[in-house]
Specification:
homotetramer; alpha/beta; Rossmann fold; Dihydrodipicolinate Reductase, domain 2; 2 domains; seven-stranded mixed β-sheet; six-stranded parallel β-sheet
């Protein structure tokens, strides 16, 4: 294998995840070079430039996009800015990787879709679970017929502690179902196809402060797929015991169960019982998947391949999440087709 | 411990479960004597009488109830006859254990409740899961505060193969949600309190023949408890891989996860992976719980204690199941209070 | 299946295990009747006779054996008396089930073998692990070729707390390797064939008081089978965390791993990790196996079948255990053939 | 944290593990720069230089060591050359990381120790298991008193398939016990202290071709520590079902069990049972540990800290392995003190 060809990447957004991506692009992915980074914080830019020997750093997205050495753009900015940065990069004709969710606004998501279509730019959306070994292996088993027809999708996402009230504010996060559930909804579509209608219940059960900004901390979403198959997703902010992410596909010939909870391969066994620790949070659980996802993006661009997760995937996942949010608010079933896009 | 005092039991109904109960009462529970059995089949009566040395056998319920040596009645007849037999036994003033469900008809269930109240007879309903070591230990942990407040109830019941079409007919079984979900609903009430409203989806996804009599083979029921807490139950007839029964209580300080799937303590490890077998069906999973439940009944009667599971528990569980069935049929949320009793 | 034929059993020895056997024979095994019990303690006899409605109770072995209603003898007396009681029962021509170990004295064991051979009496030795679902399923898998040739036997027995110093005294218990290891040695022979030589190390590492009577609390025994295959057994009295019994057969095409440690099907999941409880002790772990073993004995006698575990099995297992004990004491390998029988 | 200071490393040996180390040093460890590589194969050097942009490549160890830009040496050459390369690097006064085992010859190992002592050079030996999360967490738990005194050490190493006959030849590999067991012996010393004596059995049970060069494919080694505590190690080449590495510390208050076997977080559940895959081999199991180990080496050098694994650790582990090999060959216990160093 010759690895002489590398993708020169400009990364925009140096928050927590952005810095992880920076390190991955700069040092851990063989087929990428991190040639420029951008963030509104000059200090953040300086720090990353120095640590990772990045050739150029900027404080605006426009500069990163305009940089002639930059062949492709990775967007890890706050969700509210995804649309604007995407439109700029699309206009510049540079291949784009954009972190999930596309947007919390369907209107903006649709505008992004238009920009991508109009320019014909390469656009890959980030849903890292699809690159996790377990979720990917399940997809293969499913396609190989290991469980016959998958007729029920069951998924659970649990954060080990609540976000700040500022973060949780539905005006910026979209609310629990969009913020956390978008991952499960993407998996639902990936494994099972399009969703026809949703029902949802939810409440503020553990962290009253989240209610003060209009969010909830627990929700259960039921899905009916266009095929008539069924799905259910439970979401919680009070997964106190660890970051617990699991999905199950119940088929006519068997079941696939994906996920794990033990972080360290150690059992402590005393009179109090047998105990193991748990996965702390998403970076521990999905660090490899994040890296595999960026590498996949780079290879797709280098080889002229289609993106496995498209802007349309982002639009449709958001649409289901918006429908589920409305179902939760109204207490009534919502047909996804009602949500205009 | 002196065990001199024993309860003389008359058992009515010698189907599959009835015969297990007969053996338990006759030989495996120290505080009971099986003094009479009854079934419409003379052959069944003869066989059990001979095998277990039961003093007397009858072909009508009335004869068992009227038998002077019989101190208490165990009813394991087909569900449709529970009401009639219960009324007879209540009229005779004999303590009653009645297998679940109370009835599939709310009207009959309410009539049973009236009979029990009017006569003041001791009446204990069978929901054996409460006597399973795992479910019972979870109750204790919950009450001890191990997980803080339980805010989400999540339960799954999966049969390894479908019933006959005759059995599944909703006119006799009540349909999937009543037939299978009644156990999960009882647990939901036991752990979490009363249910305020339900939503449900379902379909015929694996066994088209079940649809021919109007039943479904998969369902997902969402619950909102009167306290505002949340619940979800998934039910399936195509648990192909084994009899999988599990429940989870998600609390503000932790989680309790109840259930197991491995039947034999053996791992077979080859190039194809590591494999274990699964629980075949309910007798293997809950055999001990069934026995513990009957023993509890006998001790309660002997010691003049209140039944842990009452006729009211049967009425309320059925009411929620009826509400969920209606929610599934209409596609709309149903308030449990709408279901008149 | 007609179960009209029953074996009338006389049980000798009403210690802890004896009482469990009494209840099993009296109430839980369909093909046995407990018609007489014997123990040196009149109080124990009275109690069991009353509780289980046993027709006759005696304070000597001779009386039980001589009782005309007794068709077969179950011996659960202290090990030191096994030989004498066996000889009496053999002389009376009554089929015998004898609890393990045959004896802690090879001389006595050989004498028992002679008595059995000379009289031609039916004699079945108790090694209940062979009747455990896991160990039995492993035997079937092995014979079915699931792992090819089993080339390494690996077994571990751990008691959750130490015996009394009186019990541990090697003059009565035979010492750790004979007392605990005899089970693993029996399994070794059952799965792998005869043992050629042994090595062993051990020490008093947790309970100094056991050293005061000359016993040890931990040992590791290595086995070379006559076939050249290998084995290892580790034994401990300080299995603090639970009663942990597991065995592994490593083959040329795979591995079988037998055992489990979780007693209650419940996980408690908090910030401190995920915890489950453990098997308390042998009655919880092997209660079903003890019962299955007695039932097997009764059926063998009733049907004229050969015993699956013979007096020779007892002699040979003891011989290996004696060799291992000597190896531990001398620090030198011991050929089993050196141990004259 | 500023990471401006980096260690300029010269890597010698570009076999399979050497290439992994090259990539780690070049791209995945923040505090290292790979400034030179060396291997007898010019093609291997060219390939790695090109792929990883390594400034300089050589075909002799001497050139790498002499390179002025090289601050520290990482040795991953064939074991037989460790001594010579180490002596050269020591003479040059450059800090050394040397892959395990130090040597298969005690004489050479002692010579290496002398070279290190005489020159006072920094020398760190590679035993990556100590850097695995599970093994490291167990060490912390042990030191924190979680299990009281560890009195029994139990460890198992199983390769999923045999090495080539050429590799296995004891003249180059040292034989099974040295080649595979050295890891377990290092852990034994790390957790438990020095070994006083050993016993061992072994044989050619699965791969007769390994016997043709004088090696064995299975072994069991018993250890008595100087403290009187006990240990046992089982080694196999026919771990057909996967790369199974696990260790247990049995203490007076509990037990620590380290290891895992499932590679992908997925269960496939069908009528045939519940199945998961297994760890393929050491790179999958210990990839993170290898990297953590190299990073630890670099940081120790940069910060002037002592190596956690010394040349003495290498000498002593080898000495125990040599003793065990002799014990296996002679069938007699061997005191480690008999093995002169």
């Amino acid at each position: 294998m010759t690895e002489s060809k590398k993708l020169n990447v400009g990364l925009i957004g140096l928050g927590r995840l952005g810095r992880v991506y920076a390190r991955d692009l700069a040092t851990r992915i063989a087929c990428t070079r991190l040639v420029a980074v951008g963030d509104v914080s000059q200090a953040a830019v300086d720090e990353v430039v120095r640590e990772l020997d990045v050739p150029r750093g900027y404080t605006t997205s426009g500069e990163v996009i305009a940089d002639r050495s930059v062949d492709a753009i990775v967007i890890v900015t706050p969700t509210a800015t995804h649309a604007e940065v995407t439109k700029m990069a699309a206009a510049a004709g540079k291949p784009i990787f954009c972190e999930k969710p596309l947007s919390i606004s369907l209107e903006q998501a649709v505008a992004m879709r238009k920009a991508v279509k109009d320019t014909g730019v390469f656009f890959q959306l980030g849903f890292m679970r699809r690159f996790d070994r377990g979720f990917a292996a399940a997809k293969k088993q499913l396609e190989a017929g290991a469980i016959g027809d998958a007729v029920v999708f069951k998924s659970s996402s649990r954060d080990p502690y609540p976000p700040t009230v500022e973060y949780a504010d539905p005006r910026s996060s979209g609310g629990l179902i969009i913020d956390m559930g978008i991952h499960d909804i993407d998996l639902a579509r990936w494994y099972m196809g399009e969703v026809a209608s949703v029902q949802a219940i939810g409440g503020v059960l553990a962290y009253p402060e989240l209610g003060s900004v209009g969010d909830i901390d627990n929700a259960i979403v039921s899905l009916v797929f266009q095929s008539g198959r069924l799905g259910v997703i439970d979401l919680t902010r009070n997964g106190i015991y660890g970051y617990d992410i699991n999905t199950e596909l119940l088929g006519t010939k068997g079941t696939l169960r994906i996920g794990y909870l033990r972080e360290t391969p150690l059992f402590v066994m005393t009179k109090s019982g047998v105990t193991h620790d748990t996965v702390p949070f998403f970076m521990e659980r999905f660090g490899d998947a994040y890296r595999a996802q960026l590498e996949n993006f780079a290879q797709n661009v280098l080889r002229g391949q289609e993106p496995p997760i498209t802007v349309e995937d982002g639009v449709q996942a958001l649409r289901v999440a918006v429908a589920a949010t409305r179902a939760r608010e109204t207490g009534q079933p919502v047909a996804v087709a009602e949500i205009g896009i």
